[in-house]
């Protein structure tokens, strides 16, 4: 015990010395300053107002402090490490090498007080407050010097904030004025609310967007003038919106769509191409100018929302452009509207489309590793045709192969090889017995896939896997996405099962599930919601839900019932089950370069009717690089189950899978410097069987399942190379459910000084991308 305490003291002393040196170096930043200059360490704003609530005053101060320029050097725990790296690197002699990299990429040059303009910042604060309705605001600026460091202090004394007394919309005889008046209930300017210049600008843009939906193509927010009268009332303003007298006549008229021209083979390098009459096709309301008849005309009918005689509106304008882009066949999409030569108040619409190469080959070579000590490579060769049947269909034919090797560990020699192929055809529309019209900017798709894979696990067994599916993919908007496979059939057949593996099955019957013949068919549905693309939000979420229904209708019709009435198709019992899985993620932005990311996974599978257990390929697993990182892939659980000593002569690690899954992960992510980001994380969870298995005691779910939650923690580095993120995570187990109850917390046994402990408990994960 004393040795352990001395060991901890020695580690603490080392960390204390390093921290002390860090503080010393941090304090030495000022000695590198130019003669007579000072280090600017930031500015603060104090709002002096006795009427304003404290909460509102603090919020206003924080907002104004964000307007101050320049920004001081970045700090960490009160220190400026980036500035320190800049200083110790010195002036590099060449624009390359370690010193240059340390100074320019890792370091940050000092922000000097000579660069701070107090008067300019004061005027910025004054304009900001007055734009918020605090007219006649007084702002003063001062500075405080302390040991070659200086701070700037700004004092803002606002007057009473002005309130909107009334809002008057255009009331002239123009038709557009009536449209604006009818939309007044949606106005952003509300009587009784504070005056805000930004809100007035937003209101002008709202009105412009409304007019764009009513045919006013040439109108602009700049044609609206907001007249503000603050001469009457007690700190009140009257706002009157008027259309400027100098507004062009064409901006005051609503336009309809006349002719629609489409150029599918438009060339950016030659936009003055000459077309012959035979190259021009008239289809419904569209005039198609195409020398090669690239697409069937109905492609344009499904993509272009405008029809001849329609009133111009921005919604259909944007929908059409987005759908052309989402077809995936064009590298460039351009749209122009020109006044019609034959009809007044009409627009001719022109679509100029530049094609991507119709056929292309993509080769992918991947290197991979996982926490089960497997290292391998994979080669994918894909041939693609973006316009297979002249309807913008995507046809893909792929062949792939790969190998995973374990260079050390209990699976050494049990290498995994796979080889296979896949063909798929994707139509940019719904193929159904009945017509489905959508109004999304995203093109709905129908996809058919046929896949075969041969997987060989040397010295054990091989599996032949066939899969075919037919389904639909569509997006409601940028946040919501659906995938429904109405047909999804999988057939798995084993061969070349070795005598060694058959002997292992005698010791562990669960291994027999892996080589069972499997026939799985039924619909699957997947729904995804995310707003993580909204970078300015403090809180963003991601949700994915999956529903897998296998053999349900067939089992009901045939009256299948295990074990008395097991039904077969081609002498193979079909699987019957229901499986649900949800994945919820939350991202909390803590700063410009830091966030707290969390994930919760809940899954359940229930076999019934023609099956008594879930297929091994459809069960849940836990552990590994993207799961609970302190435990090797597929080795955790189920429950508190421990592989019995009678199976210790099995010289490889069998996969552990189960019917239920609960997993929680959270990690703090922050940028350290340059391309390097750091993270600390905590993972917890486990899997369980829904029903008791006499061969796996402790694997069944029970009311005490929380006592069987595994916990791991660790830290890692992420290297953001722009085209990919290389991740390294080092994790240790904190709670192991395989240990006896009451002894599962292993924190007291942590001993970094022991080589045997490090070998058994330190798990290094190397992967591509974030875990979630």
TrEMBL record:
Keywords: Cell outer membrane, Membrane, Signal, Transmembrane. Pfam families: Omp85. InterPro entries: Bac_surfAg_D15 (IPR000184), D15-like (IPR039910). The lineage of its organism: Bacteria, Pseudomonadati, Bacteroidota, Flavobacteriia, Flavobacteriales. Residues 576-742 form the Bacterial surface antigen (D15) domain. It comes from the Bacteria. It is found in: Membrane. The keyword Transmembrane helix does not apply. Signal peptide: none annotated. The keyword Repeat does not apply. This is BamA/TamA family outer membrane protein. Its main location: membrane.
């Amino acid at each position: 015990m004393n040795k352990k305490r001395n060991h901890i003291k020695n580690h603490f002393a080392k960390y204390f010395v390093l921290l002390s040196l860090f503080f010393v170096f941090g304090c030495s930043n000022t000695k590198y300053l130019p003669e007579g200059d000072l280090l600017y360490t930031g500015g603060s704003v104090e709002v002096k107002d006795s009427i304003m609530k404290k909460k509102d005053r603090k919020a206003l101060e924080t907002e104004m402090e964000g307007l101050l320029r320049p920004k001081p050097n970045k700090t960490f725990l009160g220190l400026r490490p980036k500035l320190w790296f800049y200083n110790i690197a010195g002036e590099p002699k060449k624009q390359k090498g370690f010193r240059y990299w340390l100074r320019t990429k890792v370091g940050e040059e000092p922000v000097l007080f000579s660069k701070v303009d107090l008067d300019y910042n004061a005027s910025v604060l004054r304009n900001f407050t007055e734009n918020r309705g605090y007219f006649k605001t007084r702002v003063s600026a001062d500075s405080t010097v302390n040991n070659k460091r200086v701070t700037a202090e700004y004092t803002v004394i606002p007057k009473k904030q002005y309130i909107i007394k009334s809002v008057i919309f255009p009331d002239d005889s123009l038709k557009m004025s009536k449209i604006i008046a009818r939309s007044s209930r949606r106005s952003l300017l509300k009587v009784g609310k504070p005056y805000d210049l930004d809100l007035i600008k937003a209101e002008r843009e709202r009105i412009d967007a409304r007019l764009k939906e009513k045919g006013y193509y040439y109108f602009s927010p700049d044609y609206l003038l907001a007249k503000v009268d603050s001469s009457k009332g007690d700190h009140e303003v009257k706002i009157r919106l008027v259309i400027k007298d100098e507004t062009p006549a064409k901006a005051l008229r609503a336009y309809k769509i006349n002719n629609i021209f489409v150029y599918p083979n438009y060339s950016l390098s030659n936009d003055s191409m000459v077309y012959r009459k035979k190259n021009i096709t008239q289809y419904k309301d569209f005039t198609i100018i195409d020398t090669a008849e690239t697409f069937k005309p109905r492609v344009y009918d499904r993509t272009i929302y405008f029809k001849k005689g329609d009133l111009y509106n921005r919604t259909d304008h944007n929908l059409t452009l987005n759908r052309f882009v989402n077809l995936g066949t064009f590298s460039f999409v351009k749209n122009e509207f020109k006044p019609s030569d034959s009809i007044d108040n009409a627009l001719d619409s022109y679509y100029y489309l530049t094609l991507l190469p119709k056929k292309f080959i993509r080769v992918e070579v991947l290197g991979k590793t996982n926490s089960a000590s497997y290292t391998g490579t994979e080669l994918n060769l894909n041939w693609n045709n973006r316009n297979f049947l002249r309807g913008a269909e995507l046809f893909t034919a792929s062949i792939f192969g790969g190998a995973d090797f374990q260079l050390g560990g209990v699976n050494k020699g049990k290498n995994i090889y796979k080889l296979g192929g896949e063909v798929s055809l994707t139509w940019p529309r719904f193929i159904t017995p009945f017509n489905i019209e959508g109004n999304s900017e995203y093109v709905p798709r129908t996809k058919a896939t046929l896949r075969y894979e041969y997987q060989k696990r040397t010295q054990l067994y091989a599996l032949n896997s066939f899969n075919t599916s037919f389904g639909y993919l569509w997006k409601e908007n940028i946040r919501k996405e659906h995938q429904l496979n109405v047909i999804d059939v999988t057939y798995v057949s084993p061969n070349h099962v070795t005598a060694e593996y058959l002997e292992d099955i005698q010791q562990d019957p669960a291994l027999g599930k892996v080589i069972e013949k499997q026939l799985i068919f039924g619909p699957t549905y997947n729904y995804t919601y995310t707003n993580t693309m909204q970078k300015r939000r403090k809180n963003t979420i991601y949700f994915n839900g999956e529903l897998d229904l296998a053999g349900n209708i067939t089992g009901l019709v045939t009256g299948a019932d295990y074990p008395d009435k097991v039904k077969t198709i081609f002498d193979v019992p079909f699987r019957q089950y229901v499986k649900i899985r949800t994945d919820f993620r939350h991202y909390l932005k803590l700063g410009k370069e830091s966030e707290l990311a969390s994930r919760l996974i809940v899954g359940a599978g229930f076999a019934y009717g023609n099956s008594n257990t879930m297929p091994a390929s459809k069960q849940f697993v836990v552990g590994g690089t993207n799961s609970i990182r302190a435990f090797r892939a597929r080795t955790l659980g189920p429950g508190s189950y421990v592989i019995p000593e009678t199976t210790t002569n099995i010289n490889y690690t069998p996969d552990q899978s189960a019917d239920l899954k609960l997993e929680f992960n959270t990690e703090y992510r922050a940028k350290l410097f340059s391309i390097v980001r750091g993270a600390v994380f905590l993972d917890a969870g486990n899997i369980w069987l829904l029903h008791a298995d006499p061969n796996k005691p402790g694997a069944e779910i029970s009311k005490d399942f929380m006592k069987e939650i595994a916990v791991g923690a660790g830290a890692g580095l992420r290297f953001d190379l722009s085209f990919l993120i290389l991740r390294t995570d080092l994790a240790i187990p904190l709670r192991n459910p395989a240990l006896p109850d009451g002894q599962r917390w292993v924190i007291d046994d942590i001993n970094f000084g022991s080589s045997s402990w490090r070998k058994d408990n330190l798990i290094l994960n190397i992967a591509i991308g974030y875990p979630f």
